[in-house]
Amino acid sequence: MTHMTPSGLTTTDVQIAIVGAGFSGLGAAIKLAQNGFTDYVVLDRGADFGGTWRDNTYPGAACDVPSNLYSYSFAPNPAWSRTYSHQAEIHRYINEVANRHDIAAHTRFRTEVLDARWNEEQLQWLIDIETDGVRTQIRAAILIGGVGPLCEPNLPDIDGIESFGGAIVHSARWDHDYDYAGKRIAVIGTGASAIQIVPEVAKIAGHLDVYQRTAPWIIPRAERPYTTVEHLAFRYLPGYGGTAVQGQHRTRDLRRGVAPRRHPRVPRRMQAHPQVQRVVPGARPRQRRTRHQSDRVGHTARHRHR
Ligand SMILES: Cc1cc2nc3c(=O)[nH]c(=O)nc-3n(C[C@H](O)[C@H](O)[C@H](O)COP(=O)(O)OP(=O)(O)OC[C@H]3O[C@@H](n4cnc5c(N)ncnc54)[C@H](O)[C@@H]3O)c2cc1C
């Protein structure tokens, strides 16, 4: 039902409003639909489903949990092409699942949620939204947040970054028009995204520096295409894609000497370091940097760019 608020905003009443059309929001919408709820709306500022997998298009973007496990339990995908699928394939999977359940019919894309407040008298959420520059309101009894923890790009707080003369690109908003070939490039960070970006950028950069404040735990990823036999097993052996892949994943980690996380009898320092020594013989953990030292790393990055 649609009506006008006293302040002139068009208001639409729904039972349930879901913010976000990534894995979380879409999953919530599908489960609501499967349980007989029809009066819900999904709100997302983007132009299609996918969230993280729509926005992160940097070179090398892929999942770091095996694809068979990084899928909806109710929508296994026997066609995953690789052990760790790339962004485009995951984005496609999410949109296919959304289409299968007809969630687009309940979704408002290019719609930003500006504010949401609980009204005690009406026992409703009042949700201010903006679609293509037009502000309206949604009133809902239930509000589900699926906005994700990583959807806002986080730029490092480096002293003087605003006066840096070169291009600044965040992994979550990759600039595909910029010509990276032959450039002097610095990657700040060595987390999950940098680990994927660095090998790709290294192929074309004129010079590449990588800045690390805190060393992450790393293990070999064993990334490869799935074989025909595996594809057949995913399709025809119920549970193979979930249980068996999870088992292989764990066994592989144990064989490689990676202790189970949080194992009480294994010191944390031993858990992944042998892998570093295998890849980089003689490698030792560097001394820990203090906050002050890490700020200096930021300065170094800036000077090198000039
Ligand atoms: C590069 C990368 C790789 C990753 N790999 C893995 C992995 O291998 N395994 C793993 O478990 N996790 C991984 N993650 C974490 C990943 O974010 C989550 O697994 C999952 O995709 C989060 O889904 P979500 O729906 O909760 O959030 P998101 O995918 O972030 O979706 C949130 C949605 O909310 C929308 N939104 C936010 N605010 C508003 C607003 N105010 N108004 C309207 N819409 C709004 C956004 O547009 C977005 O579409 C990875 C993350 C990144 C960035």
Tell me the layout of helices and strands:
Elements lengths: L1 E3 L5 E10 L3 H12 L5 E4 L8 H4 L31 H14 L6 E2 L2 E9 L4 E8 L2 E12 L38 E5 L3 H11 L4 E5 L16 H9 L3 H16 L17 H7 L11 H15 L1
Parallel strand pairs: 2-3, 2-7, 3-4, 8-9
Antiparallel strand pairs: 1-2, 5-6, 6-7
The structure holds flavin-adenine dinucleotide.
Features of this protein?
8 helices; FAD; 306 residues; FAD/NAD(P)-binding domain; 2 domains; Flavin_mOase-like; FAD/NAD-bd_sf; 29% helix; two-stranded parallel sheet; seven-stranded mixed beta sheet; alpha/beta; 19% strand; disordered C terminus; FAD-bind_Monooxygenase_sf; binds flavin-adenine dinucleotide; oxidoreductase
Computed Rg? 23 Å
Overall pLDDT confidence? 84
Along the chain, the helix and strand elements come as: EEHEHHEEEEEHEHHHH
Q: Considering the protein shown, what is the CATH homologous superfamily of the largest domain?
A: FAD/NAD(P)-binding domain
Question: How many domain regions?
Answer: 2
Helix content: 25-40%
Taking pLDDT < 50 over at least 5 consecutive residues as the criterion, the unreliable ranges are: 286-306
Model description:
- The chain is 29% helix and 19% strand.
- The chain has eight helices and nine strands.
- The chain has two domains: 2-145, FAD/NAD(P)-binding domain; 161-215 and 286-305, no CATH class.
- The chain has 306 residues and is an alpha/beta fold.
- The chain has helices at residues 23-34, 52-55, 87-100, 192-202, 228-236, 240-255, 273-279, 291-305, and strands at residues 2-4, 10-19, 40-43, 107-108, 111-119, 124-131, 134-145, 184-188, 207-211.
- The strands form two sheets. Strands 1, 2, 3, 4, 5, 6 and 7 form a seven-stranded mixed sheet that branches. Strands 8-9 form a two-stranded parallel sheet.
- α4 (192-202) links the parallel β8 (184-188) and β9.
- Flavin-adenine dinucleotide binds next to α1, β5 and α4.
- Keywords: FAD, Flavoprotein, Oxidoreductase.
- Residues 245-306 are annotated as: Disordered.
- Residues 258-271 have a biased composition (Basic residues).
- InterPro entries: FAD-bind_Monooxygenase_sf (IPR051209), FAD/NAD-bd_sf (IPR036188), Flavin_mOase-like (IPR020946).
- Belongs to the FAD-binding monooxygenase family.
